[in-house]
Design a protein that fits this description.
Elements: E1 3-7, E2 10-12, E3 18-25, E4 34-39, E5 46-51, E6 57-59, E7 67-72, E8 77-82, E9 91-97, E10 101-102, E11 106-110
Parallel strand pairs: 2-11
Antiparallel strand pairs: 1-3, 3-8, 4-5, 4-9, 5-6, 7-8, 9-10, 9-11
């Protein structure tokens, strides 16, 4: 059984930073690409960032240069470092691992 546990969400002011973590158990983590998605109120879930098994990252245009995705295969963990946060980054952030497992989400709120 795959278990996914996200943490690190919270409330910050614009320009602030947060680091999300996602621990994944019950699957051979190192051989699967992982991603972060987000869903803002009233909007569809959208892609944020993905990391390959080799550690190469891909990003949505809206977060390029501000967010960094990384993974630690020894800890079965994927991270999302979020800098220079904006109010439009407010959403529930979801961790995803191929071939189709989702976490429960963690809330990120950016507000002054």
């Amino acid at each position: 059984q795959v278990q996914i546990e996200e943490s690190g969400g919270g409330s910050v002011q614009p320009g602030g930073s947060l680091r999300l973590s996602c621990v994944i158990r019950g699957i051979t983590f190192s051989v699967h690409p992982t991603s972060w998605f987000r869903q803002a109120p009233g909007k569809s879930r959208e892609f944020v960032a993905a990391v390959t098994t080799a550690g190469s990252g891909d990003y949505a245009d809206s977060v390029k240069g501000r967010f960094t995705i990384s993974r630690d295969n020894a800890l079965n963990t994927v991270y999302l470092q979020m800098n220079d946060l904006k109010p439009e980054d407010t959403a529930v952030y979801y961790c995803y691992i191929d071939p189709g497992f989702w976490g429960q989400g963690t809330q990120v709120t950016v507000s002054s």
